[in-house]
Amino acid sequence: MYGNFTIEWEVFSALDCDITTVAFETSSITTTEIDISSDPLISTQLDTSTSTSQNQTVTTTTNPYFVSNCNSSGIGPNCNISTDACTMSHPCQNDASCFPNNTLPLYYTCNCIYGYTGYDCQNDERPCKENTCWNNGSCSEVNMTNFRCDCVEGYSGINCQLVIDDCSNITCQNNGFCVSLVNSWRCECLDDSMYDGAYCQYKSQSLVIKEWVAKSFGFVAIGAIITVCLFVIIMDILRYFFKIDPVYENEKKRKAKHQLQNPGKQKPVQIQSKPIALRFQYVQ
């Protein structure tokens, strides 16, 4: 039969932070010897012996959770950690200085730098902050509450938030429109294939030809209308003021020419019938 066991215990010291561990290891071995004679049924002898060995190990370690007898200014295994609130929690913000003071409720006080207020210096009261002036403008403090932004070229406003309108004095031609840029401007043409130039003042050759053809058709139509109107006016003047009817004269000439060309054919004479008035009278 075989068997092993280990016993360990820790010894604490009231004056230091060391722990002594003592371990005993015990093992036992049991040996049985059997002798059998020539006749196993006649003689049987059992011999049993037991041997035991014991080893002792002593180990010394340091317990990290052991609280030593430190004074009020330090804690930890070596009493080297400060117990004041400034060192343990760093409560003061925005680069303020912290001073321990056990007479106060929070056991510390903060000395704020310029522009910050609050018990922990958490309030930023500076007139010029990181985002006060926009678009790379520089901020200058006038007094404790007011500021002034020096804007870069192309921007204006209290916080340099406005882009200066450079299109106020720019006129784009041919229905183009002006786009204000930072310290610059640009004319956007109605159609890049038809107009070009800084002010969209240049026309393409195809557009010039189209405009010339359109104007030509317009001139022809206007001329035709004017001619018709003049013809009607002249005809009315000849007929009503000078008693000349060119249309009637031409018709007479046409009939005379027709009669000369066809002398055998005479126009039948039409007998005009006179109207007859009838009167009926009743006689009794």
Automatic annotation (TrEMBL):
Keyword Transmembrane helix attached: yes
Residues that span the membrane, as ranges: 212-234
Disulfide cysteine pairs (residue numbers): C112-C121, C151-C160
Segments forming domain EGF-like: 82-122, 124-161, 163-201
A GO molecular-function annotation: calcium ion binding
Keywords, sorted A to Z: Disulfide bond, EGF-like domain, Membrane, Repeat, Transmembrane, Transmembrane helix
Superkingdom assignment: Eukaryota
SUPFAM superfamilies, A to Z: EGF/Laminin
UniProt key word Transmembrane: yes
Name of protein: EGF-like domain-containing protein
